[in-house]
Write a structure and sequence with these properties.
174 residues; alpha/beta; three-stranded parallel beta sheet; two-stranded antiparallel sheet; 6 helices; 5 strands
């Protein structure tokens, strides 16, 4: 809570800001649905889904994905709609969140198999010289899988063992 001390802030392959790029399209459930489509779908299916998304026809998108084998037969539309609503709410919250600079030291553990323009993932703007970046094995999606997770665990343990002095960094100006 507000005013509580922070001795360690560790982030695993996390962007500092999820704001959409300028001119990005609206963020509705159909747009969220499109974001989570797997790679490698036939272009004709993607084009059909884009057309349905433009109309906001989630039920038809669901049916098209099911007929293409993207959504398994055992997933019901109502269950899928609830899941999509949660993903939409999370995406909306993330996009609307505006992070503030932080006075605590920040340890960022990044997946070194990613090709990124900014290896600090935007955190230098918020943590400045208090940012430590430690690359570990894997991609964003495999960093938590063996053998990468062992390397990550070792790196986190080492970062937590580094003494940051007796000063306790605080949020909220306390």
């Amino acid at each position: 809570g507000l005013g509580e001390g922070v001795r360690f802030l560790g982030l695993v392959d996390t962007l500092s800001d999820y704001a959409p790029p300028c001119g990005a399209a609206r963020l509705d459930e159909a747009a969220v649905f499109m974001r989570y489509l797997p790679d490698g779908l036939p272009a004709t299916v993607v084009d059909q889904l884009r057309a349905l998304a433009a109309c906001g026809d989630i039920d038809a998108m669901f049916a098209r994905c099911r007929s293409s084998g993207v959504i398994p037969e055992d997933i019901e539309l109502t269950t899928f709609r609830r899941h999509l609503a949660v993903r939409h709410a999370i995406s909306s919250a993330v996009v609307q969140y505006s992070p503030s600079p932080i006075a605590a030291p920040v340890s960022l553990f990044t997946a070194n198999d990613e090709n990124r323009a900014d290896p600090r993932l935007g955190w230098e703007r918020l943590a400045a010289d208090r940012l430590t970046v430690t690359p570990v094995g894997g991609t964003h999606y495999s960093i938590m899988d063996a053998p990468n997770i062992q390397q990550l665990a070792k790196a986190v343990a080492e970062a937590m063992a580094v003494p940051h002095g007796t000063h306790r960094y605080r949020f909220g100006g306390a």
